[in-house]
Amino acid sequence: MLKQKKKINKDSGFTIVELLVVVLIIGLVVVALTMIMRSVFLSFDRTKRLETAKAQAQEAVHYITKVARMSDFIEITGGSGSEKMHLTWRRPNMTNNQGYEEQDIWVCKEKSSCGGSYDIAIEDFFSGAQIDNLDFTGSSTSGDNRVIVSFNILVPDRNSSEPIKIPFQGAVSLRSYKINP
Q1: Does pTM top 0.85 for this prediction?
Q2: Count: domains in the chain
């Protein structure tokens, strides 16, 4: 019996084929988990960029509302449905302390398309996104004077060459306004 216990079993251990199969299975599991994690992270990143763009759009409309409420005269140039809004307000003349001087502000898509001394370019509120189809539409129903600002936010999509388009619409509440055709 002692001789049998001391005898070495030559069939123990794993063959090279068995080891290769195990390594292959582990590799497939790791690749699958990596793909799932990448998908989750890309989805989170996309959602974060979209939410940031929406918040920046709301910030732009909020800022325009603050400035517009200080103005004495508002006109939507080119009629309702225009890409520009002109705000004018009077302030005391600081140079000679007599009368008032007017301050002009143009609200438009980008600084190059504005025409005043002080401009609000809506694109300046966005980092990493652009806008298109900017539209100012006047509305004065039931004594509620407001201008509807609508545009599309174009957020770059890392999975496609086409940007993600988010329609946005906000209301700028005013004291009064005038639409010039």
Answers
A1: no
A2: 1
